[in-house]
């Protein structure tokens, strides 16, 4: 063979080999490319060799560290921003991403179980997250079942923070325990995702090498959301999971974060009171119990506390002495150790919260020497519950005087009580005064006390605002609020200088809806609405649950009292529904209390009556756990619930999948319905769904377990929402930005995107049809109206490719007559007209055929999945094999030609 021919053959063979190696390399790259296609930047962790012995751990760890692909040690805090954020301009808004509908990211219980070793659940680094992809009810049902199984297995994370609330610019220190529940020594990683509504802002990671069954609790400074990462007056949701080196999720949980320079914007108010263990006293020996409760309440994001009945007397509230007796309290002879109170105030301040000292605004205890002459008292205009006409207004218990009352217009009293409260708050380290009243009464000044002329009289509520404004002038450095019992005087108090608005509400009060008692969930909403409209503030509601009642011989007078005798607990759903009714309306239910009470069962107390130390019903672990999750929800979504949010004129309706209407009464005064109403804020709308199916609408539930308050859970609901005045193009855009969240166990504050359609009614107006997979107690649908920038995204590739199914479309409702409503007192008379307007036919819920604009994403519109990667990989392999065959054929031809020569 000639040298030039040999050289040509060598070159040809080298080319063939190069082509073969290149094409096969590309095939391998295509197979593995999905691991680099995630929507967020992941911190890659290399697991140690399986079966590593403990004796080799010290020598193995340096090698593991060197193998890390992040610029940190194995024990260091690791922070990673989203890839999508890295692609954006630094001044641009954070890229909007819908919350994942994977059950891995749905809510979990707060309680951690380190003694169990649940079956690990695979976390895919390349799970498919198509932006705004609608999720079918069937998929969500699977997620619900998986979440329920997770709770049964006990794989929930115990995540805490160093504060209940943060100032703008503060770093957030996270604390959690990493448990290696596997049989292998390996890296265990905590991943925390920070969400603002549907937007994922940041991803944080912390990794620790642990032996089997070993645990490690992070220390302050190791796992931190950096300072200046979060905006002021915003609620955030932190979604955390703990996984092993193979990305199997071991534990998971959700936690809200609040950044608020001013607690008055979103008050989350709780009480601290005496312990029944020691005759309603506040003693140093009970501080461990109080601290335990305050730690839980810190993690419930409580930002303000009401120190109830820790005063010596109404005119000498908190003297600078080691201990005092409450001599006016003849039923329990309580004692207060001032060092214990100061320690609790200090602990509250450490959490970032404020401490308010409770005291009456006009009272003098009957057993105390008068501090002012008789000329400064107020006198009854009429004979009644406060004594005879012409006598000093007096409050009595069992015909025994407890308090006398001074005239709020008296300059002498204004000077006296402002000085007394200033000294008391200074002595105890308090931040403000929680003022109380005994209610309203028609009264006379001393110089008119014998007059029967009504023109000489006045209502106490007529002068409360003037008194409060004088107190703020005299106590400018302290917060101030007043309990307007039943909230009936907001029109008189609207212009007062109160820092927050607090109402103690009772069923016997007159509803803001009109001439009816405020006994239903809807009456609570009406009062919250009224206060917001008058003041722009979020109402704090003292609504006490169940309130057991006994006669003098301890004979029960209601079902709640019979529950006490049976050593029963609060009815969990009764408490939660009242909290939900108030929060959904934009208020806050003050129900939680630190009482050092054995009935709390290691949890946090729940207020049952106006005298806070009395708690005779038990708090179950279930109620304590769910109270925790409701507080996370109220905090994480505070901007949707009460950030300048108003009632919406739109009238949404809720139906079953077969067309039966479940929403009957937008006012919420009737039970046996899905109470449905809409609210709107700045560039968003919400639809509140409260499940009252099969239960009554009374909020207090004095009947206890004799009145079941657990509603019938609903699935596969259809909610219609009219978009009157909105173009079809705008309706189509809005329909892609519809989400749902819930504090209940199936979501625990996670947010999911919903399947929607846009239809038109007979007037040509668009109507949004929204598919809701499940309703336990409370759901909130969130409709984002902002225009989001279209940012191209690299498709994410699933590890286990599967055909993407078309999302389920809400079933066309059938023509079914609405359910009759019991006790139909104020049902919307135009309900049938509204349904007709939506459908174009009288009582016919068939979807209109004029325009069926489905927003479901077709198979062709979805990004390429792993199936196409596999096809591309196979094609490259075929090309490589073909090149090899061509090369071989060429070589044989050369050899044959040489022989012929």
Automatic annotation (TrEMBL):
Region Disordered, residue ranges: 39-71, 85-128
Recorded coiled-coil stretches: none
All copies of domain Gram-positive cocci surface proteins LPxTG, residue ranges: 862-901
InterPro entries listed in its UniProt record: Glyco_hydro_66, Glyco_hydro_b, Ig-like_fold, LPXTG_anchor
Signal peptide: 1-30
Keyword Transmembrane helix: yes
Pfam families xrefs: Glyco_hydro_66, Gram_pos_anchor
Keyword Transmembrane helix recorded: yes
CDD domains in UniProt: GH66
Membrane-crossing residue ranges in chain numbering: 875-895
Alphabetical UniProt keywords: Cell wall, Membrane, Peptidoglycan-anchor, Secreted, Signal, Transmembrane, Transmembrane helix
Composition skew (Polar residues), residue ranges: 97-128
Similarity remark: Belongs to the glycosyl hydrolase 66 family.
Record-given protein name: Dextranase
């Amino acid at each position: 063979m000639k040298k030039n021919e040999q050289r040509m053959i060598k070159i040809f063979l080298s080319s063939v080999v190069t082509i073969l190696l290149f094409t096969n390399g590309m095939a391998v790259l295509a197979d593995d490319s999905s691991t680099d296609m995630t929507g967020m930047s992941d911190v890659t962790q290399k697991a140690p060799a399986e079966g590593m012995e403990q004796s080799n751990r010290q020598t193995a760890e340096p090698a593991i560290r060197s193998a890390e692909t992040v610029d940190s040690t194995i024990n260091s805090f690791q922070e990673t921003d989203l890839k999508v954020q890295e692609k954006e301009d630094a001044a641009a808004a954070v890229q909007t991403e819908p919350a994942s509908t994977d059950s891995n990211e749905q809510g979990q219980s707060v309680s951690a179980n380190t003694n169990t070793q649940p079956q690990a659940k695979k976390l895919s680094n390349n799970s498919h997250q198509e932006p705004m992809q609608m999720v079918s009810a069937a998929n969500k049902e699977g997620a619900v079942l998986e979440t329920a199984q997770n709770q049964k297995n006990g794989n929930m994370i115990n995540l805490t923070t160093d504060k209940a609330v943060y100032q703008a610019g503060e770093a957030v220190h996270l604390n959690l325990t990493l448990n290696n529940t596997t049989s292998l020594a390996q890296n265990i990683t905590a991943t925390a995702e920070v969400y603002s509504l549907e937007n994922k802002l940041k991803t944080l990671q912390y990794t620790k090498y642990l032996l089997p069954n070993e645990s490690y609790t992070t220390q302050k400074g190791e796992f931190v959301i950096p300072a200046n990462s979060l905006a002021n007056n915003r609620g955030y949701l932190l979604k955390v999971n703990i996984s092993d080196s193979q990305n199997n999720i071991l534990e998971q949980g959700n936690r809200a974060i609040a950044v608020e320079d001013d607690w008055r914007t979103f008050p989350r108010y709780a009480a601290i009171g005496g312990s029944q263990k020691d005759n309603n006293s506040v003693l140093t020996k009970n501080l461990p119990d109080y601290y335990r409760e305050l730690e839980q309440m810190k993690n419930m994001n409580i930002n303000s506390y009401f120190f109830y009945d820790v005063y010596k007397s109404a005119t000498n509230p908190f003297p600078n002495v080691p201990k005092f007796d409450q001599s006016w309290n003849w039923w329990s002879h309580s004692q207060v150790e001032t060092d214990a109170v100061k320690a609790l105030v200090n602990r509250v301040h450490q959490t970032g919260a404020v401490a308010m000292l409770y005291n009456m605004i006009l009272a003098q205890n009957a057993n105390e020497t008068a501090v002012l002459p008789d000329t400064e008292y107020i006198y009854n205009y009429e004979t009644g519950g406060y004594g005879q006409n012409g006598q000093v207004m007096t409050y009595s218990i069992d015909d025994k005087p407890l308090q006398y009352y001074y005239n709020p217009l008296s300059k002498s009293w204004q000077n006296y009580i402002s000085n007394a409260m200033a000294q008391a708050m200074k002595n105890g380290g308090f931040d403000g005064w929680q003022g109380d009243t005994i209610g309203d009464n028609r009264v006379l000044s001393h110089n008119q006390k014998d007059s029967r002329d009504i023109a000489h009289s006045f209502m106490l509520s007529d002068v409360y605002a003037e008194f409060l404004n004088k107190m703020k002038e005299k106590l400018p450095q302290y917060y101030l609020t007043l309990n307007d019992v039943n909230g009936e005087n907001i029109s008189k108090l609207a212009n007062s200088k109160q820092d927050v608005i607090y109402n103690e509400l009772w069923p016997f009060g007159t509803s803001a809806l009109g001439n009816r008692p405020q006994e239903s969930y809807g009456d609570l909403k009406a009062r919250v609405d009224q206060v917001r409209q008058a003041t722009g503030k979020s109402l704090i509601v003292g609504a006490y649950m169940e309130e057991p009642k006994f006669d003098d011989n301890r004979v029960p007078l209601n079902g709640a009292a019979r529950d006490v005798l049976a050593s029963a607990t609060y009815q969990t759903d009764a408490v939660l529904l009242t909290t939900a009714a108030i929060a959904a309306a934009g208020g806050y239910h003050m129900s939680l209390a630190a009482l050092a009470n054995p009935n709390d069962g290691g949890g946090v107390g729940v207020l049952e009556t106006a005298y806070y130390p009395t708690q005779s019903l038990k708090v179950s672990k279930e109620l304590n756990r769910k109270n925790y999750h409701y507080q996370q929800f109220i905090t994480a979504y505070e901007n949707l619930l009460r950030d300048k949010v108003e009632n919406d004129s739109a009238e949404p309706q809720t139906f079953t999948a077969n067309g039966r209407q479940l929403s009957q009464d937008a006012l919420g005064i009737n039970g046996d319905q899905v109470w449905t109403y809409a609210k709107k804020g700045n560039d968003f709308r919400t639809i509140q769904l409260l499940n009252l199916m099969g239960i009554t609408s009374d909020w207090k539930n004095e009947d206890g377990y004799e009145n079941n308050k657990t509603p019938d859970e609903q699935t596969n609901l259809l909610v219609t929402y009219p978009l009157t005045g909105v173009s079809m193009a705008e309706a189509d855009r809005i329909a892609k930005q519809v989400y749902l969240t819930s504090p209940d166990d199936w979501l625990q504050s996670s947010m999911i995107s919903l399947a929607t359609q846009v239809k038109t009614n007979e007037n040509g107006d668009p109507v949004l049809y929204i598919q809701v997979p499940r309703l336990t107690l409370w759901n909130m649908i969130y409709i984002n109206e902002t225009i989001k920038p279209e940012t191209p995204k690299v498709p994410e590739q699933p590890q286990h490719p599967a055909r993407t199914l078309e999302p389920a479309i809400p079933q066309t409702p059938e023509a079914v007559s609405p359910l009759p409503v019991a006790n139909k007192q104020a049902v919307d008379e135009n309900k049938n007209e509204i349904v007709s307007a939506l459908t174009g036919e009288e009582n016919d819920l068939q979807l209109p055929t004029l325009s069926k604009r489905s927003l479901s994403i077709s198979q062709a519109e979805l990004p390429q999945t792993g199936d196409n990667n596999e096809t591309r990989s196979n094609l490259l392999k075929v090309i490589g094999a073909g090149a090899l065959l061509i090369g071989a054929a060429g070589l044989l031809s050369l050899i044959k030609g040489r022989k012929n020569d």
